[in-house]
């Protein structure tokens, strides 16, 4: 009887662990898809899509060290569409890793940024860290940071 109880407990523990692994894999896949959506929406200036994946209280730290709120970021995306002399296109990440910690996921990687500023084309690489929170049955980005890769 004791042995049967121990076996049953072990089976339950294994089932819980397997379920957690499946949930982590699903969360990783979802966050990767959201990262890709973010890149496409940013490139096309789709502020509605960006609005849907960014939390109201997100903190965006840009590659120059400046900080933006969600409202400021969306306004900058909208205004860049009307300024052909300051066009920026964000290319899909060169690398992307997602780690899940319960209801929080951290996406890290390197992206290539191409654009035109004052009539001159530029290309640069940036390392990013995006923090996602599973909130009200959806993943939303609550923090992002981009740092230029200088080497």
Verbal overview:
With 151 residues, this protein is of the alpha+beta class. The protein has a single domain (2-148), classed as Nuclear Transport Factor 2, Chain: A (Roll), CATH 3.10.450. Helices cover 41% and strands 44% of the residues. It has 3 helices and 6 strands; from the N terminus they run H-H-E-E-H-E-E-E-E. The protein has a 6-stranded mixed sheet. A hairpin with a 2-residue loop joins strand 5 and strand 6 (138-148). Helix 1 packs antiparallel against helix 2 (47-53). The longest helix has 43 residues, at 2-44. It is globular, with a radius of gyration of 20 Å. Mean pLDDT is 84; it is low at 16-21.
Would you identify the regions where 5 or more consecutive residues have pLDDT less than 50?
16-21
- The number of helical segments is 3
CATH topology: Nuclear Transport Factor 2, Chain: A
| Rg for CA atoms | 20 Å
Helical content class: 40-55%
E-strand count: 6
Q: Record the strand order, biggest sheet.
A: 2-1-6-5-4-3
Order of helices and strands: HHEEHEEEE
CATH class equals Alpha Beta
Number of domains: 1
* Largest beta-sheet details: 6 strands, mixed
Q: Could you report the average pLDDT, rounded to the nearest whole number?
A: 84
Percent range for β-strand residues: 35-45%
Distance between the termini: 64 Å
CATH architecture, by name, is Roll
Which key terms come to mind for this protein?
151 residues; alpha+beta; Nuclear Transport Factor 2, Chain: A; 6-stranded mixed beta sheet
